[in-house]
Amino acid sequence: xxxxxxxxxxxxxxxxxxxxxxxxxxxxxxxxxxxxxxxxxxxxxxxxxxxxxxxxxxxxxxxxxxxxxxxxxxxxxxxxxxxxxxxxxxxxxxxxxxxxxxxxxxxxxxxxxxxxxxxxxxxxxxxxxxxxxxxxxxxxxxxxxxxxxxxxxxxxxxxxxxxxxxxxxxxxxxxxxxxxxxxxxxxxxxxxxxxxxxxxxxxxxxxxxxxxxxxxxxxxxxxxxxxxxxxxxxxxxxxxxxxxxxxxxxxxxxxxxxxxxxxxxxxxxxxxxxxxxxxxxxxxxxxxxxxxxxxxxxxxxxxxxxxxxxxxxxxxxxxxxxxxxxxxxxxxxxxxxxxxxxxxxxxxxxxxxxxxxxxxxxxxxxxxxxxxxxxxxxxxxxxxxxxxxxxxxxxxxxxx
Length: 400
Ligand code: CTP
Prior knowledge:
The chain has helices spanning 20-30, 41-46, 49-56, 74-81, 92-100, 106-113, 126-130, 132-143, 169-182, 216-227, 255-265, 308-315, 331-341, 383-398, and strands at 7-12, 34-39, 84-90, 117-122, 147-148, 152-155, 161-165, 191-196, 201-204, 207-209, 231-236, 248-251, 271-274, 281-283, 302-304, 320-327, 346-351, 363-369, 376-382. It is α/β, with parallel strands linked by helices. The strands form five sheets. It has an eight-stranded mixed beta sheet, sandwiched between helices. Strands 2-1-3-4-5 form a five-stranded parallel beta sheet, sandwiched between helices. It binds cytidine-5'-triphosphate. Cytidine-5'-triphosphate binds at residues 255, 274, 276, 278, 280, 305, 307-309, 323-326, 338.
């Protein structure tokens, strides 16, 4: 029983999928978890609290003011008791309340009060799901450490097919199980430096040389490393992403600034993960004033930036060094060469010629190369999942 004695709070809100959460309670109990259920008033219109009460063998909480015992405040007691809160199904309404800190009933007050990890299982009509307000709220929650299980595409209660279905129970169960595995902190006490985003080199006051990096891969690594207990410093070049909570974030613009910021931190680090897309060249003479168009051609002289990672590979003490290789052709060959030339412990190869993965997309597909080891291929998945698998490889190497 993989969830033996885990305290799981299940929050059921008012959607047609509410009855499916009965099955979730059974699965959780089968795995040994203690389950307590809270329901919104709307949820009780779909499924009687007694069904949840019978399966969980615990009283179902619905009303802020129903518990008259003065010795404890029910929603706070429940909020503090749970190690994990699963909100399933989550309606657009509860998602909006959570994203905006609204606490006007038992469920929303509990969710505002709890410090437990939260897993959200949205299930609703496709148009409600895709509404920009719902999408904005989901994005906000995700950035604030709420784990969201994507609704499935399929036949909806409305009689047509679309995105918004409650996922299969085995999907929800595996996310719940993984969330407890994550609560091990294998990187506790380790200092991890991650770089992300692209650097930008000035040409004149209004123009620059840049690249397509969004920072998504590096930010995902920083967030996952922090969850695994590391002290994470993130040095980001240009990226629109917000500073991750719990991560010390330093923003830089040019390759030289990135190099300087890394050099200040490097000695104290155990692991360095260089996901930034560093400009190999900078403009030799940056113009003070906007360059006027004059001749039919314009020549910019570029000079080489330092290869930051190569330098770190030369001076490293015990640091574990991870590099990225963005390739459009001869990937494996070039990556193997970079692994050796830069004296790395691990190199992540991604093929940036495929727009479904790599720069700016939410997914990636990579090959992990390590000295004297066989390569590991991770097929297309979210950057978050790649980050997890990459860190798992680093952790297993460090344990040897
Ligand atoms: N890198 C770096 N400093 C640079 C260029 C790259 O530290 N001036 C790092 C990148 O962050 C990445 C790795 O080196 O982790 C490989 O980057 P990539 O652009 O794929 O390779 P380059 O070494 O620049 O070689 P090339 O552009 O010729 O493929």
